[in-house]
Amino acid sequence: MEANSLRSYPEYLTTGAVARCCGVSKVTVLRWIEKGNLKAFRLPGGQNRIPRDDFYAFAEKHGIPLRNGQSN
């Protein structure tokens, strides 16, 4: 995925959006967060949000091919 198309993503991504983009389950994304491999912060309601730029750097570092997981 090109950097330009990623710029159209929201500034912060949900675990579900990251999972769809990577072709993995939400549980896998939560494990990446728990292990400290993927930066995220927790909202007061308990949901995680992943900064877009951190996600892109994580995917590039680990050679994860991205698919367009954003729904309109």
Report what the structure shows.
By secondary structure, this protein is α+β, with helices and mostly antiparallel strands. The protein is built from 4 helices and 3 strands, in the order αβααββα. The protein has helices at 3-6, 15-22, 26-34, 52-61, and strands spanning 12-13, 41-42, 48-51. The chain is globular.
Domain unit count: 1
Quaternary state reads single chain
Instruction: Sum up the overall morphology in one term.
Output: globular
How are helices and strands ordered from N to C? Answer: HEHHEEH
Summarize the biggest pleated sheet: 3 strands, antiparallel
> What is the CATH topology?
Multidrug-efflux Transporter Regulator, Chain: A, Domain 2
- Nearest-angstrom radius of gyration? 11 Å
Strands of the largest sheet, in order across it?
A: 1-3-2
Count of helix runs: 4
C-alpha end-to-end distance: 18 Å
**CATH architecture label:** Orthogonal Bundle
The low-confidence parts are none
Just give the CATH class.
Answer: Mainly Alpha
Number of strands: 3
Taking all residues together, what is the mean pLDDT?
86
Q: Helix coverage percent of residues?
A: 40-55%
Summarize the structure.
The chain is globular.
List the defining traits of the structure above:
about 70 residues, 3-stranded antiparallel sheet, Multidrug-efflux Transporter Regulator, Chain: A, Domain 2, 4 helices
Q: What is the strand and helix layout of this fold?
A:
Elements: H1 3-6, E1 12-13, H2 15-22, H3 26-34, E2 41-42, E3 48-51, H4 52-61
Antiparallel strand pairs: 1-3, 2-3
Helix pairs in contact: 2-3
